[in-house]
TrEMBL record:
Keyword Transmembrane helix carried by entry: yes
Domain of life: Bacteria
Designated name of the protein: Alpha/beta hydrolase
UniProt-listed InterPro entries: AB_hydrolase_fold, DNA-binding_regulatory, Hydrolase_4
Keyword set, alphabetical order: Hydrolase, Membrane, Transmembrane, Transmembrane helix
Record organism: Waterburya agarophytonicola KI4
Gene3D superfamilies: alpha/beta hydrolase
Domain (Serine aminopeptidase S33) ranges: 83-193
Molecular-function annotations in GO: hydrolase activity
Residue ranges crossing the lipid bilayer per the database entry: 12-31
Length: 308
């Protein structure tokens, strides 16, 4: 009798382990695969729901090859000044596309900078249907940076990213050794595991051990170690002036994490907190404050005070 009970308990445990791992595997799949062609699993694939001319910005569409089967699409917007001061390359967040960057590009253009708005693979008009929360997107960052660098403009190149875009920028700097003249990190996250926990918490889903399993199985599905995807660590490799823009009511990342990321950057830097903002496009929260700080950074990018 006791042997039968032990066997039942053993099988119940096995079934429990299988069930919870399946939940983690499915959660990772949903998080990293967009739904398309009537597939029933995943979030809808991000699309571009507006174009620069909606804000009276003239643009050209550029498509560059990643490989034989993959490509990136970008919008190129010239500066509104007679003499272009440099180029700002803009990278969107997860679940978004380059159309979300138009409001920011409008200000960069007004300040005299040419802008390139990029669709990561899996979003907008670029190829694919997968996102890796900044891991493989870092290769997209490097590809576009090198594309602009090869144009030999001899003018500054600044990288601007939002949320996932910040992670991709920092990873590209740390591991692909790109050399921008400055970086602007808006709404950065610090660790993939913490970001997944935050997402689950907001959905009222217990974080342990689902978050750990999602990070593990996401890495298995896409061929990387999710536990090592930590922008806070990549930040130690930053050698360029940095501006961090954070929302004071952003519940996705605690302010102490942002402070730790800030401290890991040893070059001229500045952090600006929009006290009333959550995890949202900050230029739409306080346009004047956003423009003032970005303009100051672009003008004085080699003389930013290291103190906050």
């Amino acid at each position: 009798m006791k042997t039968n009970i032990r066997k039942k308990l053993f099988f119940i445990r096995i079934l429990g382990i299988i069930a919870i791992n399946f939940s983690g595997y499915l959660g990772a799949y949903i998080l990293t695969n967009y739904r398309y062609n009537n597939k029933f699993i995943g979030f809808p694939r991000p699309i571009n729901n507006k174009i620069p001319t909606d804000l009276q910005l003239q643009y050209d569409t550029i498509r560059i090859k990643v490989n034989q089967n993959e490509w990136l699409e970008m919008w190129s917007i010239e500066s509104s000044s007679l003499e272009t001061k440099g180029t700002v390359i803009l990278f969107h967040g997860k679940g978004s596309s380059k159309s979300s960057l138009i409001a920011s590009a409008e200000i960069f253009s007004f300040l005299g900078y040419k802008t390139l708005l990029v669709d990561f693979r899996g979003s907008g008009s670029s190829s694919g249907n997968v996102t890796t929360i900044g891991v493989k997107e870092s290769k997209d960052v490097a590809l576009v940076f090198n594309y602009v660098k090869a144009l030999n403009t001899n003018k500054p190149i600044v990288l601007y990213g939002i949320s996932m875009g910040t992670a991709a920028i920092l990873k590209a700097i740390a591991e692909v050794n790109i050399t921008p003249d400055g970086i602007i990190l808006e709404l950065p996250f610090t660790r993939l595991l913490n970001a997944v926990k935050s997402r689950l918490h907001r959905s009222n889903i217990p974080t342990f051990p689902i978050a750990e399993l999602m990070v593990f199985w996401g890495g298995v599905q896409h061929g990387f170690n999710g536990f090592a995807h930590n922008p806070i660590d990549y930040a130690r490799k930053v050698k360029y002036p940095t501006l961090i823009l954070h929302g004071g009511k952003d519940i996705t990342v605690e302010i102490k994490e942002i402070d730790n990321l800030y401290q890991n950057i040893k070059t001229p830097k500045k952090i600006v907190v929009f006290s009333e903002a959550s995890h949202q496009l900050l230029v739409t929260v306080n346009k004047e404050m956003w423009q003032t700080n970005v303009e100051d950074f672009l003008i004085n990018s080699t003389n930013i005070s290291i103190s906050k």
